[in-house]
Amino acid sequence: MQTSTVVELSRKNVSYQILTEEHLASAIECLSSTFQSREPMTQALKITLEEFKYFAEILLKKAVNDQLSLVALDKINGKVVGVLIGEDFVTEPPERIETVSSKFLPIFELLGSLDEAYKQQYPVESGQLYHIFMVGVYKEYAGLSVRLIKIAESIAHKKGYVGSIGESTGHIAHQINTKRLGFKEVEGIAPVYYDDFHYEGQRVFTEITECQSCRLVFKEYRLTN
Known about the structure:
Layout: E1 5-9, E2 14-18, H1 24-38, H2 40-44, H3 49-66, E3 70-74, E4 80-88, H4 105-121, E5 129-137, H5 144-158, E6 163-168, H6 171-180, E7 184-185, E8 192-193, E9 213-220, H7 221-224
Parallel strand pairs: 5-6
Antiparallel strand pairs: 1-2, 2-3, 3-4, 4-5, 6-9, 7-9, 8-9
């Protein structure tokens, strides 16, 4: 198991480490508070902080075992200030995911439709694509998401992954992915427009106004690293 610091950044006294059990409680708090307060779909569905914490705990416990996720730590107080959940793109869902609030189901369906569209058009096997699933950073540490993703991609590349894939759910995330990190929208995979998306006959994302759609983005390592 890899638990040592991967890289250190003097700015704001932040270090980056592979997610381990010791980080779990602080990582749950960071991921939950950042997503519940800022992620468009989470806000539109009125997912509560406690509901998100339960969901985050399930995800992060699997992430600890997978050893493909990172945390950014404030070296002064030891607090997790940023979290990146990374996984194999064809990994199995975490145990107990079916026990989370039903409010999450539209999110699962929307993201799942993009991922399945990719797999049908571009067959992929385990060990090929690194899925950047979630990245959450406290506002006062803005900018760390770029560093988290770059370090995570470096680790994934060394493990034999040939590229990264992810879903841009908001405008800022999409700008970071495409303008600063070199991702491109996947050719042949149409974005899912929030205003047009239906779940069980209901347009559940009409409250989202900051961005129009969720887009699948991809980066091939051998062309960028």
